[in-house]
Amino acid sequence: MANVIELNNVTKMYGNSRGVRNVSLNIEQGAIFGFLGPNGAGKTTTISMLVDLIRPTKGALKIFGLDSHTDGQAIRKRIGFLAGDFALDGSLTGWQQLTYFGNLHGGLDKPRVSKLAKQLDCNLNRPIKTLSRGNKQKVGLISALMHDPELLIFDEPTSGLDPLIQAEFNNIIAEHQAAGKTAFISSHMLSEVQTICNQVGFIREGELIAVKSLSEIGQATAKHVRVLADEATQKALRKLHGVKVNLHKGDSLEFTYDGDINSLLKLLADHKLNDATIQEADLETVFMKYYEN
Question: Phi and psi for 115 in degrees, rounded to 5?
């Protein structure tokens, strides 16, 4: 598939201070890309360059094969963007604010707005200044989604949302991907990224240190295992290459395992067990691995 986003050795400096340094990244059409990193790592700087709010000091940045600066207007017609610090006019109702935004795109698709408002349980008839943080976030999400863009660029999209609405947001992203469209999502909600993204990038101190698919992460990281078994079985497990015991209490043994999964399964099949669970490492574990130093 064609690349929707292309960054080639992109650097952004703020005077002598580092923003991002030599970031190269390709994101294909249909990908849901999660962008992860601690505060100050360069996530917002990268997003601001993607939507041409700021420009790189050096390097090339393209979206849909177009230059992010010289073709910025054509690009913005095709993207939906929600900043982490977006602002709304508190004197307007949700409908009035969205009508204003819609007119900037050439008109408001009222049926689509109504559908999104229902999905996100958002009352658009109330003045924005009377809304809670979470309900303002819903209006912001609708503003980014309402023109059915080809590419979504979100910075902390579910901030302030309750779990039920977060789940509905996940459904909307799944529908977006099923239509062959693309999303670039920066988030601190690692569980959210793990649920909706199929590829993640880790940025640290302005440098992109890894880009992995979720399947690669699952294969490359240790699994969490818990077994209930007799002492003989536990002794055999302890000898298996790749086992690192975390907790032993009675007939319960908990450990991480980074060896060949087939060797583990064969050993378990050859012994009598009372119970066993094997879980892939979650994204938080992987995140801490990259940033623990």
Answer: -65, -45
Q: Rounded CA gap, 242 and 264, in Å? A: 9
Q: Tell me which residue has tokens 């952004």.
A: 12
Nearest to 203 by CA among 221, 223, 186: 186
**Domains annotated on the chain, with CATH:** 3-218 (3.40.50.300), 221-291 (3.30.70.250)
Q: Which residue has the tokens 């993207």?
A: 79
Return d(Cα 139, Cα 121) in angstroms, integer: 10
Rg (CA), the chain: 23
DSSP H helices, the chain, are 43-50, 72-76, 94-104, 110-119, 133-145, 163-178, 190-196, 214-220, 231-239, 261-269, 283-291
The sign one gets for the Cα dihedral 139, 144, 147, 148 is negative
Interval 203-243: pLDDT, tens:
988 999 889 887 777 666 677 899 999 999 999 999 998 89
* Residues 67, 11 contacting (CB under 8 angstroms): no
Q: How far, CA to CA in Å, does 229 sit from each of 241, 269, 273? A: 19, 12, 5
With residue 18 as reference, give the H or E element that holds it: strand 17-28
> Residue 118 burial (CB < 10 Å; 0-12/13-18/19+)?
exposed
* Contact present, 211 and 184 (Cβ < 8 Å): no
How much is the mean pLDDT over the chain?
90
Q: What percent of the chain has pLDDT over 90?
A: 66
